[in-house]
Structure formats: C-alpha cells, structure tokens
Amino acid sequence: MPEFNQISEASLAYFKSILGEERVLVGEQISPDFGRDELTFKPVMPEAVLQVETEEEIRKIVLEANAQLYPLTVRGQGTGLVGGAVPIRGGILLDMSKMDSILFLDEDNLTLSVEPGVLLQDVTAYVEARGYFYPPDPGEKTASIGGNIATNAGGMRAVKYGVTRDYIRGLRAITPTGQPLQVGGNIVKNSSGYALKDLLIGSEGTLAIITQATLRLLPLPKESISMLAPFSSLNQAMDCVATILKSGSQPVALEFLERQTILDTENFLGKKFPHSTSPAYLLLSFDGNSKEHVDQEFAQAAEICLSQGALDAFIIDTEERKSTVWDARGAFLEAIKASTDELDECDVVVPRPQIAEFMAFAHSLEEKYQMPIRGFGHAGDGNLHVYVLRDGIDEKTWQSKRKNIMEELYQKAFEFKGQVSGEHGIGFEKKEYLPLLAGPEAVELMRGIKAVFDPNGILNPGKIF
Ligand SMILES: Cc1cc2nc3c(=O)[nH]c(=O)nc-3n(C[C@H](O)[C@H](O)[C@H](O)COP(=O)(O)OP(=O)(O)OC[C@H]3O[C@@H](n4cnc5c(N)ncnc54)[C@H](O)[C@@H]3O)c2cc1C
C-alpha cells in the first residue's frame, strides 16, 4: 500500500481558493454519511469532503492530491453495497452530487449527455417524458449515474436489455495524474484500439473520475405486462427458466423470489403481496409495442410454467397491480435490512442451470451455522443476492460465522465457475475473494492497469485488490 500524507493547511487553503469555503467540509462539518455506504455499518471518515461542480475544479484538486500524495475517493450517492465509496485511507472524499445536470438530448443519435451526479430516477423521468427509454434498472433509483457507471450496475431488465455498460456511448474523465480523457463518443461502433471506455465502466473509481457520460437511449416500449408464478420448489421454478428462454420468448425481467423474503417485505411495507404461501416464485415481465405482442409473450410463458409444475400463473396487467408487485420486489433488500441489526451480502453470479443448487447450498448453511440466510435474485442472468443476518449475536461469533459462510459461498461459486459479483462490484468488502474466482493472473493484470493510470495509487486506494 502506498504511503500517503495528511492534508496540509496549505492544501486546504488551496482547495478553498478553488471551491470557496462552503464547498470544503472538514471536521464536524462532515456528516457520518460520508464515511459509509448502504452496507457499511462502521463509518470511516475522510479528512476533507470537497464538493465539486466542474471538471476544471476536479482537475486542479487531482493535480494537488497527486503531487502531495493524498488519497482521493470519489462518491456518488453512497448507495453502494461493498464499501466502494468509503474513504478507508482517509484523505479527500470527492462529492459528485452537485454535478447533476442533464446536458443535452440528441434525438438524431438517440443519446443523452449528463453530468455524473445526476440521479438514475431523474434520467428515467426526463427521457420517459419525451418518449425515450434508458433501460438499465438497478433497484436503487436514487443512485447517481456516475456510481452506476463505476459499478457497471445491473438490475432487473438485464435479461433482455443488458447492463449499464451496454448503454454508455462515451465518457469524459480526469485521470489520477490530472489528464482529461475522452473515451468513446456519440458513435455506435468502435474498433479503435483498446476499449478504454469499457475499462472505465465498472472500475469502481480506481482508474479515473468520470465527469460526463453520453447515454444510449431506445424508443420507449408502449406496452408491458407481468406474470407471477408460484412453484412448490425453486428447482421446479428454475427448470422453467431454461424452457422459457429456449422458447424464443424475450422476458425483460425474470426474477426468482423465496417465501421468507416475501414475508419480510410484507412486514416492512405493511402491504400484502398477491401470493405468499408457496416456497418459490418466478416473476416475469414482457414489453413491446403492441398489446397482442405482450399478451402472446405472457400466454407462452404461462403455458410453459403451468406445464412444468407452476401452481398458477397470475397476470399482472393493471398499473396498480404492477406497482404492488414491482415496488415489493424493489424493496427486498431494504426489507431484509430492516429485519435484522447487521448483515453481509454475497452478490455472486453463476451459470443459470446452477442457481437452484447454489440456493439449496446457501440454505444448507443456515442449518450448519444456525444463522438466518435470505435470498432472491435474477433468475434470467444467474446473479444471486444471498444475505446472512446477524440477528443480535455477539460481535466475535458474528465475525467468525459470517466469514465462514461467505468463504463457503464463494468456494461453491468457484466450483460452479461463477464470479464474485454480478453487479455490486468488489469495493473493499469482497476483495479477498477476487483472486479465487477471477484467478491470480487476472488480478495481476488489473494491478498493472491500475499502475499505468495511477502511478502513485492515490485514487480509491485499498479497493478491488
Ligand atoms: C436498496 C438498494 C438496491 C440496490 N439495487 C441494485 C441493483 O439492482 N443493481 C445494482 O447493480 N446495484 C444495486 N444497488 C447498489 C447501488 O445502488 C449501485 O452500486 C449504484 O451504482 C451506486 O451508485 P452511487 O451513486 O450510490 O455510488 P457510490 O456508492 O457513491 O459509489 C460506488 C462506486 O462508484 C465510484 N464512483 C461514484 N461516482 C463516480 C464517478 N463520477 N467517477 C468515478 N467513480 C465513481 C465510487 O468511488 C465507488 O467505488 C442497490 C443498492 C441499494 C441500497
């Protein structure tokens, strides 16, 4: 790990000369929220929070940080789940939330240029009001687009539409040595050398600071319909997934739900889910431009599910029903979090045919370690979210059981040729598992790439590896 310096009075005065007194926060001016993300339970505070508004301000701050060897961590909205935006080495926390403008809708190129601090929910509202569609749909709508890009956020529409990386045409960024960088642009294809844009996407604020993004849009589909199918086992449900996808049907979302998570969410929201007596469910949605098309997609998927053991196939076609079901699905993590005092998460991705076996293994650990485990996930893309709940046990036992369970889960993912993270990233919470699943050679290459971008290692130190 590089040796860093504490921020000097002279540098603080310099930052104030760039940003003004009010956008340089120190000491008690810094809220504990700046020391954590959504799954960090003990904050780690930065020495200074710098609230930037322009690329030029960022460039000057980075040049000073690099010259003086100050660690610098970028923060979007702090909704991450692996500690990516937590300033674990102290130093500067660069708060991007004031760079939140929507810059330019290019209707000929079907793109939208934005600053990185704009919220996902604001992008969605802006484009949908104009008949366009930004498909990436991670559950937390108050995350920033910069955070979504830096984690390559996924979400529930990945089966049909892909993930954030598939909707980024171009990026502007500042490297840790203070160089402005433009990668990609308002172009559809690009075979010009290494794919630097795609390298920055998912780099968790370790390679460069994203200062602007050009997002790819689609026309907004006119119709959608959803379906909820209860099953008597997750195995049965997952067998249907393969048949549905082979049938040529194109679900937008294909989620699996387990009963206990539905019950936690009913408690949390104080609302009933349409059905909650079966151990496993598939929740699907379809979209398109005509009612006939989505009705046909529904009918085909319902027939497959019913012929392969589904106990029913409920149609969800009114706006009210859709919001009941999808709002509940979107609240799963919050509901699980609210049901306990602390938790740890495993966001593995495994080949789709192994989902049921992986979940059965996860639940076997409940028995083995006498610890509650909850799960749900994206059946259509193999990305599972498994949570171990602390439920009030003492710190020493919690740390030891949590670690053992995580090690067993990642070992199983390794056996299934999966990966550590499907969408939340590595941050510092999951970095010990990366060499096992990605392989030591890949991690060594990543270190080399990091050194080229950031020779002094100032940007988000201690993350990913
Ligand atoms: C209830 C809930 C549901 C969620 N559901 C999903 C989901 O379905 N799918 C999913 O993928 N994630 C999900 N997440 C995780 C989280 O919302 C995403 O990781 C999101 O992309 C983080 O965005 P943020 O603005 O909060 O970033 P932060 O948490 O602030 O930062 C995340 C990482 O991005 C880096 N970063 C942020 N901005 C920049 C920038 N401008 N330049 C360079 N690096 C930057 C940070 O350094 C850090 O490493 C969920 C979280 C919650 C709390």
Key terms for this structure?
alpha+beta, Uridine Diphospho-n-acetylenolpyruvylglucosamine Reductase, domain 2, Uridine Diphospho-n-acetylenolpyruvylglucosamine Reductase, domain 3, Alpha-Beta Plaits, five-stranded antiparallel sheet, 20% strand
Please describe what this structure looks like.
This protein has four domains: 9-98, Uridine Diphospho-n-acetylenolpyruvylglucosamine Reductase, domain 2, CATH 3.30.43.10; 102-219, Uridine Diphospho-n-acetylenolpyruvylglucosamine Reductase, domain 3 (2-Layer Sandwich), CATH 3.30.465.10; 223-333, Alpha-Beta Plaits, CATH 3.30.70.2190; 340-447, Alpha-Beta Plaits, CATH 3.30.70. The chain contains 15 helices and 18 strands. The protein has helices spanning 9-19, 55-68, 120-128, 145-151, 158-161, 196-200, 234-246, 259-269, 291-307, 319-330, 332-338, 355-369, 395-415, 434-438, 440-453, and strands spanning 24-26, 48-51, 72-75, 92-95, 102-106, 111-114, 132-133, 168-174, 180-184, 209-216, 218-219, 223-231, 253-258, 280-288, 314-316, 343-346, 373-378, 383-389. A hairpin with a 5-residue loop joins β8 and β9 (180-184). The chain starts with 8 loop residues before the first helix and ends in a 12-residue tail after the last helix. Residues 37-38, 73-81, 84-85, 96, 116, 138-140, 143-144, 146-148, 150-151, 153-155, 204-205, 209-210, 333-334, 423-424, 460 line the site of flavin-adenine dinucleotide.
